[in-house]
Predict the 3D structure of the following.
Amino acid sequence: MVGAGAAGLFCAALAGQRGLKVLLVDHSEKIAEKIRISGGGRANFTNRDLDVRAPQRHFIGDNPNFCRSALSRYAPQQFIELVQKHGIAFHEKHKGQLFCDGSSQQIIDMLLAECDAGSVTRWQPCKLGSIAFSASDAGGASAGSYRINSDRGPVETPRLVVATGGLSIPQIGASDFGYRLAEQFGLRVVTPRPALVPLTFGGEAWAPYAELAGLALPVRIETGAKKEKMAFLEDLLFTHRGLSGPAVLQISSYWKPGSPLTLDFAPGVNVAEALGEAKLRSKKRIANELAALVPSRLADAWVGQDPALQRPVNEAADKALAALSERIARWQIAPSGTEGYKKAEVTAGGVDTRDLSSQTMESKQPGLYFIGEVVDVTGWLGGYNFQWAWASAYACATAL
Ligand SMILES: Cc1cc2nc3c(=O)[nH]c(=O)nc-3n(C[C@H](O)[C@H](O)[C@H](O)COP(=O)(O)OP(=O)(O)OC[C@H]3O[C@@H](n4cnc5c(N)ncnc54)[C@H](O)[C@@H]3O)c2cc1C
């Protein structure tokens, strides 16, 4: 098994406990670094809201239905029971997201203890070299064997599980190993791209908004048209270079370069009606009236861009108020790009699910399996990516 992250550790533990002889190899000295830094150090390890009858709702990929089988056979409740068995205290934060009360290290320790219970051998750091497959003569128990060269010597195995994750956060061990290996064996790879990532708005166009850096507020955010339309109701954060926060991370997985985002800064509020009523009864400045509906920094910035709005609300032209309301409720802006793999929580794309079995995670190359983030299955923010790691690991381990 290659890659001792979330999926690799869990799969190794389960396979070992089922009596298989497992060697888990990782090129990093410190394994499971993504678990350690996840959820702000508390690991949002699953999501209770995942609907096992329609789990694909919270996942993207070229074939969104691929993840259904594994996710419905290993539900969040099963992982919760494992966490409870290890005495790890946890809490629900928001929309079904479960976090450790203590530290994400508890999840790593739990997975290592499970590996020990399965007598898993771990080699780390261990660099892998060439990997070759030789088919066995007809009638053998397996289709063939893989010969893997490593800096600790050669390894021969009938089954090879790849759990090397995606490309995000290269400074803590991410590599394109899984994609390269897939291509070596003729499997297709959906072009990887950063996902759950802050969006940038380069150049002069962003200058008026850069001063809002640090401002957070709940918004409705939308992208795409018709069947591809996607929207989230979450918190937004202004940064010096663009937009971040859960709303933007979520929508970034659906955003296509060149297309705009539409934001409603006062979801559930009819801004046009509220300003229209204010005009009939108030002599306050427009920015002050608007500050009752959205944070005052945002109200000042929006009103400050138009001299026609820098006056008492009862003196404002209906047209100017209507335009302001439209810009609060339907602000359109096109990102210039993303913050890239350095800041992305996950990598979308990956090993093409057309070349994998949704039951076992085995690829069309006999004996070669792919699990976790290296596969073209990407979850929403909120514990869904770990749940995919656990569920795909379980599907694989029970099939090995
Ligand atoms: C900052 C941050 C916060 C996150 N928070 C959450 C969260 O709270 N909840 C959630 O669900 N998801 C979260 N995620 C996403 C989640 O961490 C990943 O989706 C998950 O870890 C993927 O599991 P994996 O086992 O497929 O890959 P990883 O956990 O990335 O493990 C891959 C392993 O493979 C090893 N490896 C890579 N290349 C090689 C190679 N060539 N040879 C040998 N070994 C190799 C790596 O060293 C690593 O140990 C977060 C991600 C980031 C970056």
